[in-house]
C-alpha cells in the first residue's frame, strides 16, 4: 500500500478501496466462531459519495459530492458480512446452515430481515446506542453470505468515545456475543478519495 494511504492524502479509488478493505488499517474486524465468519467493516462517508457518483451517468459536481457527504457524516455506517469460515467459505448458504425445516428457515429470514437491530449496540463514551437502521441486503441466491447494513446516528457521546465497540448478540446462529472494536484514531486517518 502507498505510504500516502496512512494519512488523509488524496488517493485513487482503487487505492482507497484497498485501504478500507485491509484489516491492518483498522476498518475491518473479523470473528470466526463455530464455522461462521463475521466481518464488520466501517464505511466512511466517502464510500457513499463514491457509490452515488458511480450510479449517475453525469459527473457529480464538488457541491453535489459535499452535499451527499454531509448527509452521511451525520451517522456511522457499518457493513456486517456473515458467511461460513474455512474451506467451505464460498459453498455454503448461511441461511440454510443448521436449519432443519421450513419453520427454522422462516424464523431466520424474519429475524434477519426485520429484527436484527435488536441484536446490536455501539458503546459510546458513557452509553450504549442501538442502531437506527439495520437492513439485510437481498442477494437473490447469488451469494452464500449475507450482508447487513447498520447505521448509528451521530451524537456527542459517540463522538467522545476513543473506541467504538459494537456488540452483537447472536441468537440466530447461536455463536454467542461478539465485540467489534474500532479505534477512532484509525478512522480519522482514512485517505481522501479523489473523484
Describe the structure.
The protein is of the alpha+beta class and 195 residues long. The chain has one domain: Immunoglobulins (Immunoglobulin-like). The chain contains six helices and eleven strands. A five-stranded antiparallel beta sheet has the order 2-3-4-8-7. A hairpin with a 2-residue loop joins strand 2 and strand 3. Helix 2 packs across helix 3. The longest helix has 13 residues. It is globular and about 55 Å long. It starts with 9 loop residues before the first strand and ends with a strand.
What's this entry about, in short?
The chain contains six helices and eleven strands. The protein has 195 residues and is α+β, with helices and mostly antiparallel strands.
Secondary structure: elements and pairs:
Layout: E1 10-11, H1 13-21, E2 28-33, E3 36-43, H2 45-55, H3 62-73, E4 75-84, H4 102-114, E5 120-123, E6 128-129, E7 133-136, E8 146-153, H5 156-160, E9 163-170, E10 176-183, H6 184-187, E11 192-193
Parallel strand pairs: 1-11
Antiparallel strand pairs: 2-3, 3-4, 4-8, 5-6, 5-9, 7-8, 9-10
Helix pairs in contact: 2-3
* Silhouette: globular
The CATH architecture assignment turns out to be Sandwich
The total of beta strands comes to 11
CATH fold type: Immunoglobulin-like
CATH class call: Mainly Beta
Classify the secondary structure makeup into a structural class.
Answer: alpha+beta
What is the element string, with H for helices and E for strands?
EHEEHHEHEEEEHEEHE
- N→C terminal distance: 19 Å
Strand content: 25-35%
Total separate domains: 1
Whole-angstrom Rg: 18 Å
What is the assembly state of the chains in this entry?
A: single chain
Q: Residue share in helices?
A: 25-40%
Amino acid at each position: 500500500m502507498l505510504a500516502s494511504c496512512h494519512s488523509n492524502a488524496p488517493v485513487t479509488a482503487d487505492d482507497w478501496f484497498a485501504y478500507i478493505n485491509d484489516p491492518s488499517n483498522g476498518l475491518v474486524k473479523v470473528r470466526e466462531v463455530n464455522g461462521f465468519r463475521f466481518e464488520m467493516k466501517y464505511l466512511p462517508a466517502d464510500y457513499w459519495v463514491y457509490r452515488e457518483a458511480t450510479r449517475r451517468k453525469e459527473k457529480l459536481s464538488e457541491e453535489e459530492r459535499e452535499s451527499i457527504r454531509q448527509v452521511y457524516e451525520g451517522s456511522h455506517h457499518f457493513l456486517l458480512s456473515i458467511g461460513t469460515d474455512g474451506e467451505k467459505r464460498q459453498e455454503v448458504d448461511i441461511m440454510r446452515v443448521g436449519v432443519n425445516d421450513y419453520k427454522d428457515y422462516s424464523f431466520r429470514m424474519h429475524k434477519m430481515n426485520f429484527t436484527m437491530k435488536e441484536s446490536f449496540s455501539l458503546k459510546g463514551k458513557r452509553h450504549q446506542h442501538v442502531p437506527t437502521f439495520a437492513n439485510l441486503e437481498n442477494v437473490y441466491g447469488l451469494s452464500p453470505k449475507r450482508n447487513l447494513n447498520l447505521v448509528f446516528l451521530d451524537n456527542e457521546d459517540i463522538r467522545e468515545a476513543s473506541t467504538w465497540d459494537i456488540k452483537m448478540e447472536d441468537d440466530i446462529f447461536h455463536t454467542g456475543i461478539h465485540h467489534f472494536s474500532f479505534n477512532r484514531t484509525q478512522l480519522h486517518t482514512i485517505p481522501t478519495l479523489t473523484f
